[in-house]
Amino acid sequence: MKSASANTLRDNDLRVTAQRMAVLDAIRAHPHATADDIADVVRSKIGTVSRQAVYDTLNSLIEKGLLRRIQPVGSPALYEDRVKDNHHHLICRICGRVEDVDCAVGEAPCLSAANDLGFEIDEAAVAYWGRCPECRAHGLEATPLDPLPYRNSRRSTNEAVMAHSASTAVSQPSTL
């Protein structure tokens, strides 16, 4: 049986390799992943692969229109396989969770600039920032001083809860 990734590569005139299939499979399983996250998944499937090889594969898949690269403010690039539509993203400023959301209104670009300055606008990239349901349920609040979760890597809600608890704990005086 042929894999969906192999068929996708063939349909787009790309040579089918274990690395390309593993990269596509990783992104399909983990949308909005960083290149490092993708490299980790690929290594677990096919063994040794360099980060540069993963970046090269990501770039070739983007050039063929099979992947999309997004980069929310303050984060490393994220990769997704939802392409050929004009969707936007919901981003939790506490744990870094990213979710797709359909276009704001109507056809692309969904929004109109107050003054297009002569540009032919064909896309609007919108990121809605806030708190995901899990972070809200744990009572986690984002403050202007909170580092964006992407600076190191995305964290789970549990990791966000632990980090929040540590940052709000009252330090006890030393008893030397």
Q: Which key terms come to mind for this protein?
A:
176 residues, alpha+beta, Arc Repressor Mutant, subunit A, 3-stranded mixed β-sheet, 5 strands, 11% strand, globular
Describe this structure in words.
This protein is an alpha+beta fold. It folds into 2 domains: 4-70, Winged helix-like DNA-binding domain superfamily/Winged helix DNA-binding domain (Arc Repressor Mutant, subunit A, Orthogonal Bundle); 86-168, no CATH class. Helix content is 35%, strand content 11%. The chain contains 6 helices and 5 strands; from the N terminus they run ααααβββββαα. It has helices at 4-11, 18-29, 35-46, 51-63, 133-137, 157-168; strands at 68-70, 78-80, 88-92, 98-101, 127-130. The strands form 2 sheets. Strands 4-3-5 form a 3-stranded mixed sheet, with no helix packed on it. A two-stranded antiparallel ribbon has the order 1-2. β3 (88-92) and β4 (98-101) form a beta hairpin. The longest helix is centred in the first third of the chain and has 13 residues, at 51-63.
